[in-house]
Design brief:
233 residues; 2 domains; Aldehyde Oxidoreductase, domain 3
């Protein structure tokens, strides 16, 4: 059987390829695929302990069986921001407006709106930062943004609406990298808490990565959380 393998961020650079097609035995699992890739690209072995795996946009593990036509993605821990669903849950190259995001979640029953904006800063871990570049596994990222919103709604059922948009590509200091907007009937109905939950959860499960550029060179920034099949929707 043939499967497509997509690689992102540091793993893409280690292999020199963003997408591969590989032929496997009919009973192959993720472990078999990984073993073959590590033989082909020895540098992947060093990244294996922190490599996250998805199959058809859902988190998977080494024992997950594969089937003809599957899309497997391999990526490091994420570092994201950082009515019409495509407008409310999106990955975009365009600048993100806080006011426009707030407007997307205002309904007649809305009495409170909380907005979080993640902004590119000029220093990180004591080092000067000149700009960032964000990358995303877009199809899976949008699905996971919707999952984050669904989880927030489950915990704070009085939420009226929620929108999450992440910017990718080149961003300069001072630009919005990610914006979360949540509305509710009253300020005590969970809009603040849901907004905080959404940005924290985004950084755990949404496949987005950033590379920092500064006077000392560039570096991929990876998170510590390792999603598993328990994080599947």
């Amino acid at each position: 059987m043939k499967v497509t393998v997509k690689l992102f961020a540091r793993l893409r650079e280690l292999t020199g390829a963003g997408s591969l097609v590989r032929t496997l035995a009919d009973e192959a699992t993720i472990a078999d695929l990984i073993e073959g890739l590590q033989q082909e690209f020895p540098k992947l072995a060093g990244a294996a302990p922190k490599t996250i795996i998805s199959v058809n946009h859902e988190f998977a593990d080494l024992g997950t069986p594969l089937a003809e036509g599957d899309e497997v993605a391999l990526f490091p821990p994420v570092s994201g921001g950082s009515g019409a669903e495509p407008a409310k849950f999106a990955i975009t190259f365009d600048p993100i407006s806080l006011d426009e995001m707030a407007a997307r979640v205002v309904k007649p029953e809305t009495g409170a709106v909380a907005v979080f904006g993640g902004v590119v800063r000029n220093v990180s871990a004591g080092k000067d930062v000149e700009r960032l570049e964000y990358e995303a596994y877009e199809e899976m990222a949008v699905a996971k943004l919707k999952q984050v919103a669904a989880e927030a709604r489950q915990q704070w059922p009085k939420i009226v609406d929620i929108a999450i948009v992440q910017r990718i590509g080149r961003l300069e200091v001072g630009e919005n990298a990610v914006v979360v907007a949540v509305s509710s009937p009253h300020r005590g109905d969970g809009c603040f808490e849901a907004c905080a939950y959404a940005i924290n959860r985004l950084k755990e499960i949404v496949p987005i990565w950033k590379k920092e550029f500064g006077p000392d060179g560039d570096e991929w920034i990876e998170g510590d959380y390792l999603p598993s099949t328990a994080d599947a929707q």
